[in-house]
Amino acid sequence: MSNINDLFAGEVVTKALVRDVELPHGAGTMALITLDNGFDHTKPNTFGPGGLTLLNEAIDAIAARTDLAAVGVTGKPFIFAVGADLKGAALVRTREEALQIGRLGHEVFRRLGELDVPSFAFVNGAAMGGGLEIALHCTYRTISSGVPAVALPECFLGLVPGWGGTQLLPRLIGPAKAIKLIVENPLSQNRMIKGRDAFALGVADAMFEPADFLEESLRWAAQVLGGSVTVERPAIEEDWDKAVADARFLVDMKLRGAAPAPYRALDLIASAKDASRDAGFAAEDEALADLLMGDELRAGLYAFDLVQRRAKRPAGAPDKALARKVTKVGVVGAGLMASQMALLFARRLEVPVVLTDLDQARLDKGVGYVHAEVDKLLSKGRVSQDHANRLKALVTGSLTKDAFADADFVIEAVFEDMGVKKKVFAEVEEHVSAECVLATNTSSLSLSEMGSELRHPERLVGFHFFNPVAVMPLLEIIKGDSTDDATLATAFSVGRSLKKSAVLVKDAPAFVVNRLLTRFMGEVIAAVDEGTPLELAEHSLDDLGLPMSPFALLQLVGPAVGHHVSETLHAAFPSRFGVSENMAKLVASGKPGVYAPDFSLDPEAVALFAGGERPSTAEQVRERVLRALAEEIRIMLDEGVVAAAQDIDLCMILGAGWPFHLGGVTPYLDRAGFAQPRFLEPGVASVPA
Fold first, then answer.
1. Distance between CA atoms of residues 163 and 668, nearest Å
2. Smallest Cα–Cα separation from 333: which of 397, 394, 393, 392?
3. Which residues are catalytic?
4. How far is CA 432 from each of CA 353, 427, 494, rounded to the nearest angstrom?
5. In this predicted model, what pLDDT tens digit does every residue of 29-54 receive, in sequence order?
């Protein structure tokens, strides 16, 4: 154990505090273990060797007693436990050390399910990773309806649930539901579920309200021990092999074999059908050891650190105290993007939002969209009837921009044309106060040029959302030549209120995400123009596990939009960004892309790209794209488009779906040998700060 203790030298030790509780109805004495690292909820309970050793010692003392009716485990206020101490895990040097970590967790946790008396987990707060696994080892579980997060996020980071999760959970709730928590949710932007959802899935046997959760849980435990409450768990009757096969197909569609962790997790879940407890836990140890030694974990931890830490402290953001209060929002335009924004502003800021457009029909459609989306939230139980009524009342429309007279923040979402946007802001400026922030959702145009004719260009800021607005977490905040700190601070404040991760970006063509995606797409399209078969080029980067192939992404964005951005960047950087004549043909054809509605390639669209005589191999296309990305990132860093390479990584993860298993784009290019000089200092991509 000395080796792994050295690795976890900085461990914040979670103590196992034991007290006796006399259960009601004469049910006897329970030894109640409270997990507590001595800090408030902002530093959750985690498990390293020190904490596991203390828990083991507490169980030793409990096991030696003959006067107990049961054992209970709960957490400190708002937190049950959130799993292993990953800072130490990231420093593992040998496979033997990795095996020790897996075996230690199993040795300690399994004891809770193998005592002479029943064990109860009282899940009072967030339970993730090893925190959920310790609860699974207990005989019974209760959960608070107020628990905000229940998850097994290991596959998101490049690991598997290695302390019993892949064996115990499918046997408890069935393989399909277990796969949802172990594989599908982590691969869907690390989705968490709430306490009520966990109870509905069968993870917990009983659920109580937060106010008297522990008291009610103890009363329930006494009833179980006394026999007045019987916990019945239905037999698992679903087709186990089919559930695993179906999940493997979906993982293949999403990752195309690029990341090992989800596949190892599915192998373990498959084996849980017949494996003994000892064999299943040993298989988890082996899988955990393999994955702890791989690049995927380091990459995942680097990416996780970016979205959990750097995203919450944006580099270059002004003092929060400079931000102005926003009590009303104006949205210019009532199309789909504008309507999505209006809904988000209303939901998060809960202030009046007014849309404007050129005619009543468009306006009615935009406001109608918002109201319909609120009705969907109501039907799903996401909002109450009163809340739905308030949200609908907040969003209105006007044909004239004098409706913005008392607005503090006005954002435009009109056609991506400089002349149109200048005209819009000139009209808006006639009606708003001098302090009102003017924001543009432009995806590629110069902010400084856009504000060049304003009376107050200092209050213009870029506020670039990604589609769909409610889902995509990134917000590129662009500072123009004249943008002042108060405007910038207000933009960051609004971004935080919208629950977006904001990155400060210099006013440079297409900013970060669209600039890199356009360079990426441009190289693939150029290879096709030169004669590379479109399907071959389309799948040349499958081994990266990107969320979409290049032409599928083009179909989502729309050929006209993609072509327009490429023209904008060609005008700015003609030597690096080309304009494809074949893309122009695709736009002129009116086709939505190269795919037919059934997702097969449209032969007529593909034929528009025929004629080149210099085809490339898939490997040549892949290398061409990655070298181009490395070159463009190096130039962007030299230009100061963002403060550091980590900000480019953050933008690509949150705005373009760059896979977590690759870490950020810059450390990946470093590892793959495409970045010279290195984007990151040695060690940055290996160990989170």
1. 29
2. 397
3. 133, 154
4. 15, 9, 18
5. 999 999 999 999 889 999 999 999 99
